[in-house]
Design brief:
About 25% of the residues lie in helices and about 35% in strands. It is an alpha+beta fold. The chain folds into 2 domains: about 10-135, Aminopeptidase (3-Layer(aba) Sandwich), CATH 3.40.630.30; about 145-265 and about 280-290, no CATH class. A 12-stranded mixed beta sheet has the order 1-2-3-4-5-12-6-11-10-9-8-7, sandwiched between helices. Strand 3 and strand 4 (about 85-95) form a beta hairpin. About 35% of the residues are buried.
Length: about 290
């Protein structure tokens, strides 16, 4: 009489503190340019991140008979726009062992269960796009605009100053924006205020390298793109003088009034939920917290 071994048990559950080291080792195996120490740093940032109640602090684990076969990290945040708070969840660092890729769609579907949450993926790999589209994700940016300094830009602009978030001041600052800039500075971002006529305008950038050697600054946060356009000259000058001569901006075409080039198909961003995220807001995503694009 033939005996049959029991079917493997595959389940999905939230990552807990006790899983952190095994999840870090698993992700370092899936992302070859990273180490377990890199992922432990990311988990530390997630531990300290103010996750909204009812959402997972770290993300989800898929396991077979207690052994990890898939991990997706989630960064859940309360985002304020036009004085209205919304909840956004960034699907980050998603990896499933090749032998279990057929379970990947089910893995994701079990995560996307909050109807009032906007889910975003800002670094979708090509092989995950069919799954994202099947799960109702849509593209909200199609490419990147690369802003470059010009001699006119480098002359500076009277009446406007760009100051670091840690600079001493006696201005009245919005406490939510101030906290956002301080937290992103701790992640390694460049957090600055543009000052003019006694008013402060917040901006966050993250240093990145393009083509292996070109130092750039990715726009992570501004209140809206009109403010970035308004202060593009002093901001680009500030960054260029610090060795980041090109500013990279999520876009769907050229940005009027700013010298540069738009390239379609570079780092498109995807979302699912009540409304698309606005351009110029990658705050509390993996691009800001982990430097993953």
């Amino acid at each position: 009489m033939l005996s049959h071994s029991p079917s493997p048990r595959i389940r999905t559950r939230q990552i807990i503190d006790a899983d952190i080291h095994s999840a870090a080792n698993f992700l370092s195996g899936g992302f070859s340019r990273s180490s377990p120490q890199d992922w432990l740093l990311f988990f530390d940032r997630l531990t300290k991140h103010p996750t909204p109640p009812g959402l997972p602090r770290y993300g989800y684990l898929m396991e077979r008979d207690g052994t990890p076969i898939g991990v997706v990290l989630l960064i859940s945040s309360v985002i304020r726009a036009d004085d209205v708070n919304t909840t956004r969840c960034n699907l980050s660092s998603w990896y499933v062992l090749p032998a279990y890729r057929s379970y990947a769609a089910l893995f994701v579907s079990q995560i996307l269960k909050h109807k009032d949450v906007t889910y975003v993926n800002v670094s979708a790999a090509d092989h995950t796009l069919p799954i994202l589209k099947a799960q109702g994700f849509s593209k909200y940016t199609s490419g990147q605009f690369f802003a470059i300094p010009t001699p006119f830009t480098l002359l500076g602009e009277s009446g406007v100053s760009v100051v670091d978030v840690d600079a001493s001041h006696d201005w009245h600052l919005d406490p939510v924006e101030h906290d956002l800039l301080l937290r992103h500075a701790q992640y390694g971002c460049t957090s600055v205020w543009c000052m003019t006529s006694g008013r402060a305008y917040p901006f966050v950038f993250r240093s990145r390298v393009v083509k292996g050697f070109i130092r750039c600054a990715q726009l992570i946060y501004c209140r809206d793109m009109e403010e970035f356009t308004r202060f593009a000259r002093p901001l680009i000058r500030f960054l260029a003088l610090r060795g980041q001569a090109i500013v990279v901006i999520d876009a769907n075409g050229r940005i009027p009034g700013i010298a540069g080039t738009y390239i379609s198909g570079v780092r498109p961003r995807y979302f699912r939920g009540p409304a698309p995220p606005r351009l110029g807001d990658l705050a509390y995503t993996e691009a800001a917290m982990f430097g993953i694009y």
